[in-house]
């Protein structure tokens, strides 16, 4: 069956509806749905929002009512066929008399992947899969990574000068980005479940690491600090606001007095072998907490450690029109780095966006999400 421009347009609409769930669905996926009646009119639209329990397909079908019979459902992700908190969406589509389902991608969850399409086809529904698949995968990259790699999606974000410096020097907190770029950074924070920094950044910058996008979120942004020597100042905003915003510190310091003190302030100190140096264990611990995505905001050493360990899925560099120079200003990525071109961290799907005079460079690690 040929796909028409209308199919393309309606699938795009379903993807746009799914985006309305950003910040409101994790650890579940973003899903949007459009129901088009047999006569070719949009008769229902839905977005999945976790707290509302009802799925995108059910919202759109209830709007459409009898007009769904004989119509087409455009869904941004494979409808689920299992009984969860809600009726299976496949059943709802079948019962509503939908004749055709157009959907970009399968659900990546191995427990359900492909089963929804099988059930729809078994009930005589035409199922078209693959339209705008790249866009749909990108939209749900965090959910997909979580299921495929069994760990949170890691997005490394750094602000830097044109010569790749992320600060003036190690002892001064330096704001490099302009106000437009900073707004974008808060939107990025809004998309993620957790934000992570190294111990030196916590010590030098004294950041608050909150989502100030002004957009609603279902769960608070979890703040994570890799601080083996537990140098975080007790009057740091990360500590003084830990009773309001979840804050985790990974360490192996063994400083029981400071750990107890931080505990009193509601900071959760996670003691593991090698502390924050063991990035696989850090990510595994975050996964246990249903954290699907982590925005790593530096500094040099932590960024380098994630790159060396090949645990970065996506990179955003916010480049300001500045040259800092000098020998001591920290560069963006430390760690061991590459000694051959084959070892260099190669990226794909590069995108450039301007925010005033700052330039955002975003790209993906090569390979599958
Ligand atoms: N422009 C930006 O976007 C940006 C963002 C963040 C930071 N910065 C700047 O970066 C500078 C700090 O960078 P930095 O390289 O000195 O420090 P960092 O990367 O923030 O922290 C490094 C420290 O974290 C601890 N750590 C725990 N687990 C680690 C792991 N897996 N890999 C590496 N370190 C780990 C280590 O301390 P232990 O000795 O306790 O193990 C290490 O000394 C500051 O000047 C800050 O202003 C800039």
Strand order of the largest sheet: 10-9-8-7-11-6-12-14-13
Say what oligomer this is.
single chain
How would a crystallographer describe the biggest sheet?
A: 9 strands, mixed
* Gap from first CA to last CA: 29 Å
Shape: elongated
Order of helices and strands: HEEHEHEHEHHEHEHEHEHEHEHEEE
Number of alpha- plus pi-helical segments: 12
**Ligands, ions, cofactors:** NADP nicotinamide-adenine-dinucleotide phosphate
CATH superfamily of the largest domain: Dihydrofolate Reductase, subunit A
Strand element count? 14
Descriptive overview:
The model has no long low-confidence stretch (mean pLDDT 95). Strand 13 and strand 14 (358-365) form a beta hairpin. The chain is elongated and about 65 Å long. The strands form 2 sheets. The protein has a 9-stranded mixed beta sheet. Strands 2-1-3-4-5 form a 5-stranded mixed beta sheet, with helices on both faces. It folds into 2 domains: 5-139, Cytidine Deaminase, domain 2 (3-Layer(aba) Sandwich), CATH 3.40.140; 142-365, Dihydrofolate Reductase, subunit A, CATH 3.40.430. It has 12 helices and 14 strands. Helix content is 29%, strand content 21%. It has 369 residues and is an alpha/beta fold. Helix 3 (89-95) packs parallel to helix 4 (115-122). NADP nicotinamide-adenine-dinucleotide phosphate (NAP) binds next to strand 6, strand 7, helix 8 and helix 12.
């Amino acid at each position: 069956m040929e796909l028409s421009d209308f199919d393309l347009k309606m699938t795009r609409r379903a993807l746009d509806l799914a985006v309305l769930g950003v910040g409101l669905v994790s650890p579940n996926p973003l899903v949007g749905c459009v129901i088009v009646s047999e006569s070719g009119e949009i008769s229902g639209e839905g977005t999945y929002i976790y707290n509302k329990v009802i799925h995108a397909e059910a919202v759109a079908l209830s709007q459409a009512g009898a007009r769904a019979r004989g119509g087409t459902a455009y869904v941004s992700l494979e409808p689920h066929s299992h009984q969860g908190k809600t009726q299976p969406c496949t059943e709802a589509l079948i019962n509503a008399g939908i004749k055709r389902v157009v959907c970009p991608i399968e659900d990546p969850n191995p427990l359900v992947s492909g089963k929804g399409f099988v059930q729809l086809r078994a009930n005589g529904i035409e199922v078209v899969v693959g339209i705008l698949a790249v866009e749909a995968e990108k939209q749900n990259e965090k959910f997909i990574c979580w299921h495929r790699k069994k760990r949170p999606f890691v997005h490394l974000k750094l602000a830097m000068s044109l010569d790749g410096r992320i600060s003036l020097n190690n002892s001064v907190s330096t704001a490099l980005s302009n106000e437009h770029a900073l707004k974008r950074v808060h939107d990025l924070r809004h998309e993620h479940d957790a934000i992570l920094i190294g111990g030196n950044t916590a010590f030098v910058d004294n950041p608050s690491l909150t989502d100030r996008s002004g957009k609603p979120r279902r769960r608070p942004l979890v703040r994570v600090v890799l601080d083996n020597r537990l140098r975080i100042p007790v009057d740091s905003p990360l500590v003084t606001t830990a009773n309001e915003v979840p804050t985790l510190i990974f360490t192996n310091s063994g400083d029981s007095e400071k750990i107890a003190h931080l505990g009193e302030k509601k900071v959760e100190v996670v003691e593991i072998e090698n502390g924050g140096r063991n990035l696989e264990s850090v990510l595994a611990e975050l996964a246990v907490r249903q954290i699907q995505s982590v925005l790593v905001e530096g500094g040099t050493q932590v960024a380098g450690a994630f790159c060396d360990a090949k645990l970065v899925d996506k990179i955003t560099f916010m480049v300001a029109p500045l040259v800092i120079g000098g020998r001591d200003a920290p560069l963006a990525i430390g760690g061991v780095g590459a000694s051959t071109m084959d070892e260099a961290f190669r990226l794909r799907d590069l995108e450039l966006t301007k925010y005033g005079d700052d330039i955002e460079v975003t790209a993906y690690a090569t390979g599958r999400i």
